[in-house]
Amino acid sequence: MSSSTMDPADPVFRLHRGGKLAVASTVPLTSREDLSLAYTPGVARVCAAIAADPRLADDYTWAGHTVAVVTDGSAVLGLGNIGPSAALPVMEGKAVLFKQFGGVDAVPICLNTQDVDEIVAAVRALAPSFGGINLEDISAPRCFEVERRLDEALDIPVFHDDQHGTAIVVLAALRNAAALLTRKLGDLRVAISGAGAAGVAVTKMLVAGGVDPEQVVVCDSRGILGPHREGLTGAKAELAELTNGDGRQGDVAEALRGADVLIGVSGGQIAEAAVAGMAPRGIVFALANPTPEVQPEVAARHVAVVATGRSDHPNQINNVLAFPGVFRGALDARATRITDGMKVAAADAIAGVVADSLTPDAIVPSPLDPRVAPAVAEAVAEAARRDGATR
Fold this sequence. Notes:
Blueprint: H1 11-16, H2 32-38, H3 42-52, H4 57-60, E1 66-71, H5 84-102, E2 105-110, H6 116-126, E3 132-135, H7 142-153, E4 158-160, H8 161-180, E5 190-193, H9 197-209, E6 216-220, E7 223-224, H10 234-242, H11 252-256, E8 261-264, H12 272-276, E9 282-286, H13 296-299, E10 303-308, H14 323-332, H15 340-353, H16 372-386
Helix pairs in contact: 5-14, 6-7, 8-9, 8-15, 14-16, 15-16
């Protein structure tokens, strides 16, 4: 939409005018004494204490409750590579969700570079101001290297939400869908359409949560991953080695033949005939947004449980169920990283919120359910301490 066609009366644009964030003081400044305590000379004593013991920054600065939401604007929503300025409204929105649902303060950081070395250097330089780093909307495969290098370099949690937030909620939803259908995760045959950031993370998360990797088949745009595919590198090569125990070859229809579960994280459309080839009483998570890989009404003709990424259909797989509580728990525990155990704990907590009231149209909580973030935070903090991932 160009500026000449933008309608200022549109409620979306009215809401966004001036941005969605502001900075507010947490201390009074109504007297000379207030000023001397909050700034000079009093602040010098706090600075000296932190210089002597850097761990005090968690208690005496905002770092203990603040994360950076970092993007390079290369993979924003379904809009693609729109750059850092156009990504800023999304990062502001993410910060609002952090505050609303997790009580976590967040600062959007939109970097004017898409070079891995420069992104890593910039975030490392900014890190002392924050208690965690939420990577957002960075395209694959660069996102894998950015996260890995920052995770190795920093002693605060680094979390790429497009990967792990999605994966956590998918595991929670699959746990509850399986329970509803009286199935066990380890017995499910799972087809995953998409081998980008989300597909890789979902696969690894499901395996960490109890799915048999040999019963998982992952497809990219060229078909099923496996040893038969030459030239695979990086994450795809790892998935080819980890999954597809039957050595299947072919397209997504072959991956779905007899499968119990379809998880779509690709955006590519899947024919109804392929879904019809799934095992009885199946599960479809068609998560591309705004256009699911399979329309919910089509999937419902052939399977028992359907979820999407959309808010106008039941069972929305929404990252907001995960990331506010994950970071709240990580910050509360003063975590140094996000472990697999913490992610599985988050998934279990999300699933547990509605475990006693499951129906085919309600396998995950509403994103607005106030019980979710506290449950996730408590579970993540406990797992961080159990995994030895705290300062």
